[in-house]
Structures are given as structure tokens and as C-alpha cells.
Amino acid sequence: MRILAAMSGGVDSAVAAARAVEAGHDVVGVHLALSRAGGTLRTGSRGCCTIEDALDARRAADLLGIPFYVWDFSERFRDDVIDDFISEYQAGRTPNPCMRCNEKIKFAALLERAIELGFDAVCTGHYATLIDGADGLELHRASDNAKDQSYVLGVLTAEQLAHTYFPLGTTPSKAIVRAEAEARGLSVAQKPDSHDICFIPDGDTRGWLAEKVGTATGEIVDRNGDVVGSHEGAHAFTVGQRRGLKLGVPAADGKPRFVLEVRPVSNTVVVGPKEALAIAEIAGERFSWAGAAPTDSAFECHVQIRAHAEPVPAHAVVSADGVRVTPEVPLDGVAPGQTAVLYVGTRVLGQFTIDTTVSAVPVGA
Amino acid sequence: MRHYLDHAATTPLRPEARDAWLAASETVGNASSTHGAGQDARRLLEESRERVAAELDADPIEIVFTSGGTESINLALQGLWHARPEGTSAIVMPDGEHHATMDTVAALADEGAELRRVAVTREARIDAEEFAAALPGAALATALVANNEAGTINDAAALALASTDAGVALHLDAVAALGHVPLSFRALRGDAPAGAGLVAMSLAGHKIGAPVGVGVLVAARTARLTALLRGGAQQRGLRAGTQDIAGAAAFATALELAEAEREQETARLRVLRDRLVAGIRSAVPAAELLGDPLDRLPGNAHVLFPGAVGESLLFLLDVAGVAASTGSACQAGVAEPSHVVMAMGRSERDARSVLRFSLGRTSTDADVDAVLAAIADAYSRASGAGTATRS
Hints:
The structure holds two protein chains of two kinds. Chain A has helices at residues 11-22, 51-64, 74-90, 97-116, 158-161, 174-184, 205-213; strands at 2-6, 26-33, 68-72, 121-123, 129-133, 136-140, 164-165, 218-221, 227-231, 258-263, 268-272, 279-284, 287-289, 298-304, 312-319, 322-327, 339-344, 347-353, 356-359. By secondary structure, chain A is of the alpha+beta class. Among the domains of chain A are: 2-125 and 167-184, Rossmann fold (3-Layer(aba) Sandwich), CATH 3.40.50; 215-276, Roll (SH3 type barrels). In chain A, strands 5, 6, 12, 13, 14, 15, 16, 17, 18 and 19 form a ten-stranded antiparallel beta sheet that branches. A five-stranded parallel beta sheet of chain A has the order 3-2-1-4-7, sandwiched between helices. In chain A, helix 1 packs parallel to helix 2. Chain B folds into two domains: 15-259, 3-Layer(aba) Sandwich (Aspartate Aminotransferase, domain 2); 262-387, Aspartate Aminotransferase, domain 1 (Alpha-Beta Complex), CATH 3.90.1150. Chain B is 41% helix and 14% strand. Chain B is built from 13 helices and twelve strands. In chain B, helix 1 (15-25) packs antiparallel against helix 8 (245-260) and helix 5 packs parallel to helix 6 (156-166). At the A-B interface, helix 2, strand 3 and helix 4 of A face helix 10 and helix 13 of B.
């Protein structure tokens, strides 16, 4: 096959490209420039798209003896990921920019360009597995549970999966990938894993958002609507957050309070006791299936609401209005905007963006 | 088979220049040493300087060897700025200049320089009247002799004359023009008084078949210019550091050859280039030649492929064995939208859809044929690849 290997400059994508070459594919490496104002050098595990990352990717491609190009997707990335991130927060929602990048950039803009240019598939260093099932390709968790990235790939559709190649999915641990990189002589073998959001290099999401959307004083209220404090901008708060509330009025029971809801229009943050965070039901209109769609409109599955959250057994109902999921035990800290990924065993069924949540406890509790 | 159509980025080393470099590299001795070995080295260096001066119609003392075009431009612009006439603070710079100029001027603007920009025409030509209008009272002015991307050749004589009339020091960036456009420093300078008119001209060796790493700043003997590098009195004190004798010898040899064959090569490259442009337009009817259709560098074809993603075109041509360019590249190797194309009044979208093919000494009909064989398919794929992705 003709494979376009997306190379970030990290160890995973370098080893993935190496395995693609070794498997006998015709491989071309490409580094996506996602920011035009990226820093020039890496600092610790933060940041990406630096000149150093592009150089690391280039040197890995040199070692593998494959052609290498840098393509500028910074405009698409700004429109579809960064601006989306800002507007989601402004709407009081909690987005996952990595999922957005997979959905709009790596497996959309890049994949479409790859196909136009004559490639059969895009190869990445994601930890997830593709299995040829009875009803077509299935997306599954990686063998290494600790590194499993199937959650952030939950947005991929059958059509996208058909042109995707994850050479690392069946590797039992990341340590093996590093050792393999070392053995292959790849200079990135011991490069630290990237964390955080790549376009917020210092990791200070609140500060970054405040800079982008400005500050505006608003009220913090309890579930009865009584004002218990003030804040400098609702976008700085996420459901489930406890720290940084600086409440002037103590709770009647003296217990800590948590953010229950963010209301961007009125710039209001609602707080309450930890029990009130429990969510009995989640629903969303925007959904997709990672492979064949489920045959039944109601089925049992597991739901996962964050990249590293525990999957929870749940009952799902699909209708024209979207997907509604009732977990067996209430979910904690669910924020609208998050993605719920549905699993059956290790298989990713699909995902939806959470629009509404139903509390497990009535108001006043 | 690889076909190299990126001579404007760098052109292959001439075998004679390599030989000259190797021969000179055998010379033991620092040209600043007073012993016999040093004198031998110095002799070779000054001979090279004289040969370069003769080709450029300048005095040998006016030839300052540098590490290349970027250093020459920096030395000229920073040097003129720091020695500027009292009471002046403006720098006149046309749009669409090379990044070496733009970034240096931007740094000087941070130091307090007032930037006077001069728009270029749709053909990337500097309008001599608008340029002249921006000059009065300026500290210095700069201009391209030929635009490195669009290939348009400016009326350097008119720009120099306007600078003389305005009493403003002019730097010419002749990096892209060297070897293709006749350059007489003496004629361009005319009878301008000290500190006015053409005072400095930047050149790079690797554009004419000398090695990368050697360039020249022609600095008028009367130019008021401070040095960038300190640490010695070499080259009029304008460029401290042990002098690169082998580089100077290779530059002189390459320049002599380039000048000797210029007229013949110009005629040959024009024919090849015109066949390339005609062939592209026949294979891709939507394609449009940018820049001045006639008054342009002989090997330059700067072509807009409407709706195509430049990166994709480059990739597909590369796979077909054709090396071309989008014109400008940043350090990470990203093809950014061309600021030259935007200065020509085109959209950012168009600026991402332009390729520069540049022919040179080693170009043949086979190179042109390779482009023409690949371009129609590349265009159809590359124009699907960027537009179908918006949902």
C-alpha cells in the first residue's frame, strides 16, 4: 500500500512509520505544521509543532530512508480546533481539542489530501487496534490499556477507518515501543511524552482562555439561586471543579462545594455539594459510529466520558433525536461538550457529544 | 531521473569554481599574516577581489567578501542605518522584498526606524515614481534588482537616479539578478555625491555556481556604513574575521564564467522557459504566468495554478522527479503563502497556489518535458485535494 505516515516528531509516530516501512509499504512521511507561531525549541513535555519537533520528525524519516514533507495545516487547525475550543468554552461547554483534531485535521483534511494524492491510508502512532469483523472494520482498544487511545479516535467513521493504519495498537506496552526506537537508532527514543493541549504551551488553560476571551465579573450561585460569591469569567470554570472558587458565603453544612453548571449567557456559575455532581443520564444530538452502526435502537454497552475515565456499564437508546445513555451507576463530573464514547467489550461502537445531563439528585439535596 | 527546476534556490556548483576552490584551499597562510605564506594567500585574495571588481565594474576596494546574500543585506541595511545622516529616521522599502531585507528592516523598525513602504504593481514591479516620492528625507532606501520569486526585473537605473536626486543612500539586492542582468556598479552609481544614490549592492555566490557560503557586498568607497562584525580591520574594517580565500577565488571564477556566457545563456533559457510556460498553459488552461511577461529573469516561470494547493503540487511533482518551489520557505520547511504574490494584489488563497520553476545552466529540454508530462495530472489532483475537505 501507499502509506502517508503522519510524523509529529515523537517516538510513537516514528516507530509507527518504521513498522509501516518494514511491512513493505511505500511510505512517505509528513509533519503537520499546526501553528505558524510555534516556539522554536521544545521545553520539557510541553508544546508541539516547534521547529525542533519538525526536525526530529525529519531526522526519523531520514533514518527510515523515506521522503519527508512539512505541510501547513495551521489555518484549518486554527479554524476547526483552536477557535472551536474557544467558542465551546464561551458556550459553557468543555471541549476535547485532541478529538477535534482527529475528527477535523488528521483523519479528515490530511486523510482527504492523502487520498487525492494517491495514498491508500494515513498511518499514525495512536494506540488503538483495527479488526476486520463480520460487518467490516472495527475499532478496538489497544493491547496496552495504560496507553489506549481508542477514546480520542471514537469520532472516526467506517469510511475513515478504511483508510487508517495504527501499527502500534497491538504492542503490549509503550516501553516496548521506546526500546524498539532505541534499537532502530531513532534519536527520539527517550523523548518525553507530550501532555496537555499542544496550543497552550505553558499548560495554563485558564490563563490562555482569559487572554482570548477577556474577563467579566459574574455571580456564583447555589442551586437555590442565592449568591455565594463572584468570579472573573464563567469560561474559567469546568463542571466538577472545586479549587479556585473563593466563595464568600460558607455552605450550610460546612462541606466543600463544586461547580455543577456553567451558564455562559448570564455569566453565572452554579455550585453545590459533591453529591449533586452525580449524573444519571446523558444525551447528545451529534453522534457517529466507528464502523457498522448498531442494529438495535436500544442496547447495553459501556460509556466512557474522558480519555482516561473508567468505562461504566450503561443502557443506550438511539433515536432520530440522537443518543441517550443511562449509566448503571451515576457518572461524576460530566460537562456538556465532552464526548461520550460507547464500547462493547474492547470495541468502540461510536460516540456522541454530550449536550444535556440529568442530575441523579433533585434540587435542594 | 531527477529534474532540477529550482536554480533560483541554488544552482549547481560549476566544476571550474570547485577547481578554483580546491586549488586555493591548498594555500597555507592567513591573508593578514606578514610572512611569505600570508603574502601568498593575500595575493590570491586580492586577485580574486580584482577579478570580481572588473566583472561588476567597481573598484577592488569596493568589493567586500561576506558569507552570502543574507549577510551582505544585513551589513548594508544595518550598516547604513547605524551610520545614517543626523535627523533622518525613515527607511524606504518596496513590498515583496526578500525576507533577508524585510526581517532586517523590521528589526530596525524596532530600533526606531520609520518604515516607508512602496507598493509594487500586479507584475511585482517597483514603480520608480512612487519610489522616488517616498525618498525625500529618508535615512536609506532598498530595492530588489529582480524579484526572486516573480522574476520581474526592475529599472534599477531609475531607482538609483531617484536616490541620487533625493540625496538618499540606496542599497540594491542583486542576489537574484546576478548572472542574468548586466550590473555595472559604476554606471548605476553615476556621479552621485558621497552618501547618496547607489552605495551598496548585495550578491550571493551560490546563485551563479560558486559554493554556498560566499557572497559580496559592493560598498561604494564613499559609503557611510558601520560594521556588523567587529574584531579586525580586514576589508576596510567592514567585515572583521579571517578572510576566505578559497571562497573568494571560487566566486571570482563563477562570476567570470556567468558573465562570459550571460547573453548566450539568457537567449537559451528564454527559449526553454517560454516552451515551459506555453506547455503548462496548454496542459492546464487555467494556469497563469505571474510577473512581467517580458522583462523578467530568463529562467523564471512563476505560475499561478488557481485552486490548487501548492504543497500538493510540489509533492506530486517531486514524486514525478521534478524539483520546483513555492518561492519562499520558512525554517521548518513549511510552504507559507507567498508574501510576494500577496504584494502583487492576489489573495492569500492564490498565494498558496503558485509555483516557481527556475531554469539554469544545467537545464535541458528533458527537464521541461518532465514538467509537462506531470503537470496536468498533478494539477487535477492538487486542486481536488484542497477544496473537497471543507464540510
